[in-house]
Amino acid sequence: MKNGGVNFGSPMTGAGSINCVGCTWSGTTPNFTVTVPNTHWCELTWGGSGTLFALTAGDDALMNNGCFNDSGVTWTVTAMKARSDAGSNTTTVNPTFGADGTGTTLCSAPLIAGSSYAYSSSCTISNATVASGNGFRPVMSGTLTGTSIIVHIDYTTP
Fold first, then answer.
1. 22 is in which domain, residue-wise?
2. Where are the beta strands (DSSP E) in the chain?
3. Whether residue 112 sits in one domain with residue 130
4. Residues 21, 2: Cα–Cα separation, whole Å
5. Which of 24, 83, 114, 125 is least surrounded, with the fewest CB atoms within 10 Å of its CB?
6. Which pTM value belongs to this model?
């Protein structure tokens, strides 16, 4: 199991344990239900179009709606982090989502992408619910450094 393990004892004794991050369970052995969260991720990845492939304003437009919810169910975003190839990165991202990737801001503030391919910590998610029919737009800003950015979005589904 992706998020942990399940160890059941004998149905006769009902002994056993559940170790599953984010799982919920109800009932008693041998008749109980374990609900495992459906955890997923998507990434928006783009490179620069400037001299020597440096990031320039508008490069992120390539990824508008690159991560699109067409699942028929609502996503709940649990984390968003980003990374850059630049050694001392100053590029920020502040993704929005909506029918065309614009609209609602995902994070409470722009996030500086991590440097040297290391991911940043997650931003503070201020709007976590993404309905089916909505996609993300990366919204790159700040002093652009490096040649590539990756925005990583973790989400769950019912």
1. 4-35
2. 4-8, 16-20, 24-28, 31-35, 38-47, 68-69, 75-84, 91-93, 96-98, 104-105, 111-112, 129-130, 134-137, 140-142, 148-157
3. yes
4. 9
5. 24
6. 0.79
* Claim to verify: residue 13 and residue 66 sit in the same structural domain: no
The answer to whether residues 61 and 88 belong to one domain is yes
pLDDT in tens, the chain (158 residues): 333 344 344 344 444 555 566 666 677 766 667 666 688 999 999 999 999 999 999 999 999 999 999 999 999 999 999 999 999 999 999 999 998 888 999 999 999 999 999 999 999 999 999 999 999 999 999 999 999 999 999 999 98
Q: What is the count of structural domains for the chain? A: 2
My answer on whether 16 and 49 are in the same domain is no
Pairwise CA distance, residues 45 & 42, whole Å: 10
Amino acid identity of 32? F
